[in-house]
Design brief:
Number of domains: 1
CATH class: Mainly Alpha
Order of helices and strands: HHHHHHHH
Strand content: under 5%
Radius of gyration: 21 Å
Helix content: over 70%
Shape: flat
Number of strands: 0
CATH topology: Four Helix Bundle (Hemerythrin (Met), subunit A)
Number of helices: 8
Largest sheet: none
Length: 226
């Protein structure tokens, strides 16, 4: 991920109108990034998903009435546990990527299975949290805070389900391979790892702005508007 960002911003900082850069560009093979089709597809999904999540967050900020109290959710609760679960998923994906780079496929199958189990655990925890809210008469129609909360978590959950679909395809192939053949799946596994990192970042933005520092964030936004 860091190499990708370096290449991206390095390319943006180039000055093709200068003679020195023109000489370099003339010798270029034409391929700017060494990206697999899987990673390229994930980056396209990043762009589309970021727009959707940004719309939900923007609507949340602009539709909360000034008099509405936003201290609704009890603390601590399952949101903290779910956040920790996502961190563990990213951690195990990190171990998988390290093993791929070291050409050490011994633990890749086990860690891939753990990623799937933890992802389903996250979804189960989110559904159970919805159940708790509904038992406490907190619905989509209750107010703009909860409508944004449900929309955002539902959208995030759908993205996670989509990731689990492709995780299932990659995992089923990987489990059938010998250790010496697992490296053939490195591009697909790396793309999955990048996708889950994106889901973690999106979740953290939601978790911090709508939950941990919700009222502070709202007050800051109101101060900018006024």
């Amino acid at each position: 991920m860091s190499n990708l960002l370096k290449k991206l911003f390095g390319t943006l900082s180039q000055k093709p109108w200068e003679k020195e850069q023109a000489v370099i560009d003339s010798q270029h093979s034409g391929k700017s990034f060494n990206l697999s089709l899987q990673t390229s597809a994930v980056i396209v999904i990043f762009g589309l998903s970021t727009v959707l999540f940004s719309l939900v967050l923007s609507s949340y900020l602009y539709t909360i009435p000034p008099e509405q109290d936003t201290l609704f959710l009890l603390k601590p609760n399952l949101l903290w546990i779910n956040t920790v679960v996502l961190f563990f998923i990213t951690y195990f994906f990190g171990k998988i990527i390290k093993d791929l780079k070291k050409n050490n496929p011994t633990n890749i199958k086990k860690n891939l299975i753990l990623v799937g189990i933890l992802s389903y655990l996250f979804l189960f925890g989110q559904l159970f949290f919805w159940y708790q809210l509904m038992q406490d008469d907190k619905f989509v129609s209750t107010n703009s805070y909860f409508s944004s909360f449900y929309y955002f978590t539902a959208l995030h959950g759908l993205h996670l389900l989509g990731g689990l679909f492709f995780w299932g395809k990659v995992c089923s192939k990987t489990l059938k391979l010998n250790n010496s053949e697992i490296m053939n799946q490195s591009k697909s596994i790396s793309a999955l790892s990048l996708y889950w990192t994106f889901l973690l970042i999106v979740w953290l933005v939601f978790f911090l702005t709508m939950y941990v520092f919700n009222d502070v964030f709202i007050d800051w936004c109101k101060s900018l508007i006024t």
